[in-house]
Amino acid sequence: MTSPLDVEGGGGTSVVVDGAPQPPAQPEAEKLEGRSPGQLMWIRFKRDRTGVISACIVLFFFVIALAAPLISKVYGKDPYTVYADERPELFDSAGVPVQPNGGISSEFWFGLEPGNGYDVFTKLIYGIRTSLMISITVTLAVIVTGILLGVTAGYVGGRTDYAIGRVIDFLLAFPSQLFFIASMPVVVSLFVSPTDETPTYVRVVALIVVQWVLGWMSLARILRGTTLALREREFIEAAKVSGASPWRIIRREILPNVVTPLLVQSTYMLPNFVTIEAGLSFLGVGIVEPTPDWGQMFSKASTELVQQNDITYMFFPGVSMIIFVVAFNLLGDSVRDAFDPKSSR
Q: Which is higher by pLDDT, 59 or 98?
């Protein structure tokens, strides 16, 4: 047996046994790889089959919303064409599609709406796009407001905490659903005269503002409670003793530790805002024709269900809404379990 020989530049020792060189020994530090909390969370999430499937479904809806113009171009139709005027042979005297099941065919995949005769498929994908755009904007605004006011109230305390807490209590006292309906026309009238037709962008802005003003309190209260618990921890006291400024403590110590409740609550808030926006459009105080919208399709479908006893027009928007909301809620449960390994469902 040949004695060991040191090989320079290899970072270790190469051992030659019976003329066959062995691979250099690796330092012990290179064998041990630590994992961050984010990596551990991701590993736990990938093991949750329900969460992965839900994430794929949610991602599918977002892709559909983003690619709506491209899909419409490939499909060869748009949600604004009035087929009742362009192709009246497809409808009877009452404006109802002649073909069964709402006019579903190889040409019109999801059929045609009674009355104006809009293509249901393109109206649905553009309606998903409209609803998600509004709801994502509201969710981001709520997150920013919740962080600013909730974390500030929890860390500063004193009169600041008392003032913000009373504002939260006051706004939570409003019956949100009724106040949504009542406040929409008021907000719209601030931008447009009641005698003028309301532009679509004004309705969109009003929907965002109303949902934002009445939607940030719950998140702010959760973040306030989390921050109150964190500010008494040893690492916060150590940061104060070291001379760190309040802003640095909030930015470097508090905010990274509120990511978990923030992310979990966000996955619950977005589908909630989608249903609120759809409900407002269903009641006629949100998005109106000809702009496609999820809730507007429900309103049209409910009218046809009463008049024609036909559930066809409710099927596609209804099923898609149910799948989206359920998938997003299951995704929220999976994210919560991934962040908290002690929880179980």
A: 59
Instruction: Name which of 339, 165, 158, 155 is nearest 251 in CA terms.
Output: 155
| C-alpha span between 135 and 324 (Å, rounded) | 13
**β-pair partners for 112:** 119
The three-state secondary structure class of 306 is helix
Alpha helix stretches (DSSP H) within 98-199: 100-103, 120-146, 152-156, 158-172, 176-191
Matching residue, tokens 């909630």: 272
* 3-class DSSP state of 68: helix
Eight-class DSSP state of 13: E
Is the CB of residue 221 less than 8 Å from the CB of residue 168? Answer: yes
Q: Please give the structure tokens belonging to residue 186.
A: 């008021």
CA 322 – CA 201 distance, rounded (Å): 27
168 backbone dihedrals φ, ψ, rounded to 5°: -60, -45
Quote the pTM value.
0.81
